Amino acid sequence: MLSRKHKTWTDEEALALAIAYGNSLTDEEDAALTKAATEDPDTILAGVLTKRRPGRPVTEAPKIPVSIRLSPDVLDHFRSGGRGWQGRIDEALRKFMQHETGLGQPDTASRRKKRA
Q1: What is the tens place of the pLDDT at every residue in 71-113?
Q2: Which of 62, 82, 93, 103 is the most exposed place for a label (fewest CB within 10 A)?
Q3: pTM for the whole thing?
Q4: Per-residue exposure over 97-109, b if at least 16 CB sit within 10 Å of its own CB, e if not
Q5: Contact of 110 with 91, CB cutoff 8 Å
Q6: Number of H helices, E strands in the chain
């Protein structure tokens, strides 16, 4: 709970007030406050206040991380091709799956540009 004089706010109310205040700042004021906070060695919010770097776009069918045990020679073979070895394993498994199920050619989503 946050209190000011004789008014006491819940956490939700305090957060709403902080967001409203943040939205009322000009870009220059926001930049000045952010700079001051990140340069202050005592601030605990330095990591929170930095802008998020853009990442990969969100996909409709994200891949699922798994742990798998592979023979050393199989792993060496795929890693010898350089970056993208996990994608090549995924593509090889997809081709095998399509061969097993008789679905024919791999779909275009599994075909990727080769890196130089």
Answers
A1: 999 999 999 999 999 999 999 999 999 999 887 655 555 444 5
A2: 62
A3: 0.42
A4: eeeeeeeeeeeee
A5: yes
A6: 5, 2
CA 52 – CA 76 distance, rounded (Å):
35
b/e per residue, 27-66, with b = 16+ CB within 10 A? eeeeeeebeeeeeeeeeeeeeeeeeeeeeeeeeeeeeeee
CA 61/CA 94 separation, integer angstroms? 14
Rounded distance, CA 15 to CA 18, Å? 5
Read off φ and ψ for residue 9, nearest 5 degrees. -105, 150
- Each domain of the chain, given as residue ranges in start order, spans 2-49, 56-116
Residues 4-27 pLDDT 10s: 566 788 888 888 888 888 888 888
Contact in structure between 9 and 17 (CB atoms under 8 Å): yes
